[in-house]
Structures are given as C-alpha cells and as structure tokens.
Amino acid sequence: MQAYELDTLKAQYLDFHYGEKENFGVANFPKKCAELCLETCKENSIALNKALDLGCAVGRSTFELAKGGFQEVVGIDLSEKFIKVAEELRNKKSMHYTMTEEGDLVEQNEVSLKSLGLEEFSDRVRFVNQSASELDFTEFNSFDLVFGGNLLCRMKKPKDFLKNVHNLLKSGGLFILTSPCTWLCEYTDKEDWVGGFEKDGKKVTTHDGMKEILSEHFTEVKNPHEVEFVIRETKRKFQHSFAQASYWKRK
Predict the structure, then answer these.
(1) Which domain holds residue 94?
(2) What CATH number is associated with residue 169?
(3) How far is it, in rounded angstroms, from Cα 77 to Cα 127?
(4) Mapping DSSP to helix (H, G, I), strand (E, B) and coil, where does residue 1 land?
C-alpha cells in the first residue's frame, strides 16, 4: 500500500492543507504556494484562465488558485484517497477528520470551505486521480499556469516529466515548481535523479538539473528560493522542512 493511501496520512494532509493553526508561526504551505503562483502570474501578465495543480493532494492550492481568479483549475494527484477527499470536500463543502494527540488519544477537527472563503469558488475546480507523469496531452494542454507541488522527487521518471511539461502549457505560460529535493532510491532510481549527486567532481543540484532540461523550452523568470512548511503528525511531533520554489516561462 502506498504511504499516501493510509488514513493517518489523509488526516495529516487535511490538517496540513486546511488546519487553522500556523505551527511555529509558519504560513500554510499550499495557500502560500498559490499566492506565489498568482503573484508571478501578475508580474508576467499571465491571463487567469486555466491552471493545472499537479500533486494537489487534498486540494487546498487548487481551491486557492480559483479564489485568486483562475476560471478553471484542475487538481491532479496519484493518490486515489487524496482525490476522493478533495472531491468530497468540493461537493459537500465541509469534512471532519481525526488527528492523533498521543497514543490512542485524538482530537476532532473540521474543514469548512465557507470559513476559509473558498466555498463560492468550488464550481471552478475539478479533481482527477492520475499520475502527473502519464498525462494525455490531447486532454491536458493550453494551461496558463502549471504548478507542481513537492512531487518531483517522488516521481519514478522525473527527467521525462520535465522534458515534456511544456506540452501542458500555452506559449508564454508559467511552470512553477516546489521541491524539498529529498531524492530517495525507494521512489526514484538513482540514474533518474535530477540532482543531488556529483558528476565529474562537481556537485549537481536539483536546480542545476532542472535548468539543463528545461532550458530548451523555458526561460527562468525568478531566482529560486526556499518556502518553509510544517506538517503536524501528533501533538508533539512535526515535520519541519523547506521546499525550493523555481519559476519558468514557456518560450
């Protein structure tokens, strides 16, 4: 069973996406990513027509892109459970989930699209259970924005994805990607890593590898930078990480 199909992960990601607390003062990551996307669209005079949210998990950034002005937003994730959760939330507008405090002790929480100011935009959003690396370009194309949230280093063939991502975009469209660059052989064979290794005695970072692959079809429009995020596991255990955000405009 994939880790992302477990009920505990479902609750953690609902809390990560929709929880009201800012753990350790760190801003909500999916919302922050949507804000960065919208800000960069404005800076590059991108029309807010169609957006694609790859690795959308339980959907917060998808909803936020619609709230920010996009008329149509498609959220795609490999996890069937995550997509079912996102679709149920879109339809029912609210959902309860249970978070572990310690041992068998739990707390009950609720997600409400209305309380987050997202309810009125749910008709602009749809969710699809599919691998981001196996998209049919005849169905998924002509997007003004493609956002990939923390999925690159969990792909089996990330280089192939980067070589083909331009097919999803209009000319002049934006590809924005975040990644913690945690390359692991359990997800990606080492020969398929985009970065995180030495070649000819030199360090090759993920950004180096991305730039080499994407330069044929993209121009980088901003310097990469770090985006902080925190995932709560229990009352006293948290994952504290950083993702590198990079910004690319299709030629």
Answers:
(1) 3-250
(2) 3.40.50.150
(3) 8
(4) coil
Using 50, 70 and 90 to split pLDDT, how confident is the model at 1?
Answer: very low
Contact call for residues 10 and 81 (beta carbons, < 8 A): yes
Residue with tokens 């405009």: 249
**Terminal Cα-to-Cα distance of the chain (whole angstroms):** 40
Pairing of strands 202-204, 218-232: unpaired
User: How many domains is the chain partitioned into structurally?
Assistant: 1
What number of other Cβ atoms are within 10 A of residue 80's Cβ? 13
Distance separating alpha carbons of residues 59 and 14, to the nearest angstrom:
9
Q: Give the pLDDT confidence of 151-170 residue by residue, as tens digits.
A: 999 999 999 999 999 999 99
Local structure of 143: helix, strand or coil:
strand
Question: In terms of pTM, does the model score above 0.85?
Answer: yes
Q: How many CA atoms lie within 13 A of 224 on its CB side?
A: 18
Long-range contacts formed by 241-244: CB under 8 A, 24+ apart? 241/180, 242/180, 243/29, 243/150, 243/178, 243/179, 243/180, 244/178, 244/179, 244/180, 244/181, 244/206, 244/207
Q: Measure the CA dihedral 72/52/3/85, to 10°.
A: 0
